[in-house]
Amino acid sequence: MPRRTAPIVSVGARLQAILEAFTETSPLLTLSELSRRTGLPLTTTHRLVGELLTGGLLERDELGRYRVGLRMWEIGSLAPRGLGLRASALPFLGDLFDATRNHVQLAVREGTEVVYLERISARDAVHVVSRVGGRLPLHATAVGLVLLAHAEHEVREQALAAPLRRFTERTLGTAAQLRRALADVRRDGYAVCNGAVELVSLSVAAPVRDQEDNVVAALSVVVPAKGANPRALIPVVRAAARGISRALGAPSGLRLPVAARHETHVLPEHG
């Protein structure tokens, strides 16, 4: 993580900078590393880290390195978009996992990124880079395409105007490709990504709606790309997503979407 260049003025912003210095690849940091990553003086970092330790937001290991504390998880679990949604979704995630024996994921959108709320996995499931609490760009994942396809016009245009990071040669790389993919998702009611983040995996996702019929989350299954049959996965993924939607009170969760009454259409391998 590069050192921050802009000055951090408020105490709250300084505390946030320290907490955000931790990443999936750097879960343990020394005081000097925290100072360097945040751009804060060592004495200031020491004082603020002490306050975070006292509050349980940080913990210290036997080697003197710091990590995110359990209290952070307790607070994070109270986020309204995650709390009720996750509880309503878990039974259906379990059913989908039982049916597929592969990764099953629940995700929401924040800005132009996917945030993963829950995942159920088998020990021998295909490798994935996503993790609970982790983020990925919307354009590169099946859940992301579902969420972006149903996002506000301004959000879609923001994503279309931004550079599209390529993870593999199958990742959507142009605004024209992404625009076509989003139109397909809105028409068909699901998304398929084949090798968009890792060539070894294929994912199928469907939207989850709330009581006002707004898309608030996306559900996906991730399977090995080799030998995968998306047509067999689409109905079970959509059924699980409709089940969660019913639990959330969505009117559309009570009826079968029109697209599901016809032969399923698998998106081209554009990502």
Automatic annotation (TrEMBL):
- What SMART domains does the record point to? HTH_ICLR
A Pfam family matched by this chain, by name?
IclR_C
Q: Which residues form the HTH iclR-type domain?
A: 9-70
Q: Which UniProt keywords apply?
A: DNA-binding, Transcription, Transcription regulation
List GO molecular-function terms, semicolon-separated: DNA binding
Q: Any idea where the IclR-ED domain is? A: 71-250
Asked if the keyword Protein transport belongs to this entry, the reply reads no
Gene3D superfamilies this protein is in? Answer: 3.30.450.40, Winged helix-like DNA-binding domain superfamily/Winged helix DNA-binding domain
Checking SUPFAM superfamilies in the record gives: GAF domain-like, Winged helix' DNA-binding domain
What is the protein name given in its UniProt record? DNA-binding IclR family transcriptional regulator
Q: What is the lineage of its organism?
A: Bacteria, Bacillati, Actinomycetota, Actinomycetes, Pseudonocardiales
